[in-house]
C-alpha cells in the first residue's frame, strides 16, 4: 500500500514539474514530437540571389548563360532553384549543368553534372513561378566556386534577374543554342566587361538559389536588405558601379560567412538583399524590386534551414520617399513579428551614415534627422532579439553623420571591402540561433 501511495505521490510531483516546464518544441510532427537527430540531414540554403525584376534585363534569344556561385556551405548533394517570377511568358530551359569553376567561364574536367527537373533535362516554368531541381551529386567545399549553365530555348522575353550584381556572368551570343556541356570558356563572353571602370552592373539571370544536404545541426543566417547588404561599393552614377568589388565577394554577408567559417560555427549565410530595395514600398525603378515587406516570406523566411534573420533596411525608404520614423517602425514591427511566427531569431541593424551622399532626393543631410530617429528606436526597442550597431561600426567618430574615410566606398553611402568587413565584425556570433535537434 505504501508503495502505491508513494508511486502516486511521485506521479503527482512529476505532473506538477511537467506543468511548470517549458512547452515541448513543435517540429512539424505535432506538439511534443521528438526532435530530429542532429546527425540526420536536411536541406540548407548555401547561396541565394533574390530576384527583383525582369523589365530591365537582357531578353535571351536561344543562348546559354553561365552563372558563378560562391556557396557559403560545403556539400556533396545540392539542388538548384530557377525562377520565372517576373517573366512575361513561360520560359523553357532546354538543358542545365553544374561544375566546379576552373577559371573564368571554364569548368574543371570531370566535375560537370547534369541538372534535371522531375527526371527530365528539359523543363518549362510558367510565368510567375519557380522550379526546384532534382538533387545533384556534386562535391564542393565552402567558398569553392561553381558554374551553373542554363540553355534558354527560343525568345521567352525579359529574364527574371537579380539586378546590379557585383559579379561576372558569362553568356554565349544570341542564336548559338545549347553550350551547357562545354567545359571551356570559348564562345562565352563576360558581362560586365571588366576592363572598363566604372562598369555597368551585371544581373544574375534566372538562378536564385542553391541548397545543400547538411546535418540538421547547421542553420542558415538570412540577411535582408538593400545595396548595403548586397555589397555595392559605390555608384558613380545610377546603375554605374565602381569596378573594384566585382568578383571580390566582399559584401558584409560574404565576410560574415568568412568569420563563421573561421570560428568553426554551424551556419551558412543566405543573402536576400536587392540593391535599391525599400522596406515599405515597391521600387519606382523595377530593378530595385518589390518592397521588403512583400517579399520577406518568399525571399528570407522561406530559405531552407533558416534560423536567424538579420534585418538592415530603410535607408532607401528615407532617401527615396522621405519615409518617417513612425512608418519605418511600423514596418520593422511587422517584419519582426512575421519572422518570430516562423521561429526565426531576429537581429536588427542600425542604419549607416549617409552625410555627403549626393543621390536625390533625400539622401545625405535631408534624410539625417529621420535616420537618427530610426536608430534611436532600434537601439531602445525590445521587439527584436538583438541589435547590430552597424552605424557605430562604420561611422567617423569625428563626424558621426559620415562614414569613416577608410570604410567609404567612394559615394559616401556604400562601403569599401574594409567597411563591409567592419560591418561583418559587428555581428555578435553568439546571437545566431542554432537549430533545434537532439
UniProtKB/TrEMBL annotation:
Residue intervals of the SGNH hydrolase-type esterase domain: 224-422
Top-level taxonomic group: Bacteria
Signal peptide range: 1-18
Pfam families: Lipase_GDSL_2
Any GO molecular function: hydrolase activity
Keywords per UniProt: Hydrolase, Signal
InterPro entries reported in the protein's UniProt record: GDSL_Rv0518-like, SGNH_hydro, SGNH_hydro_sf
Name this protein carries in UniProt: SGNH hydrolase
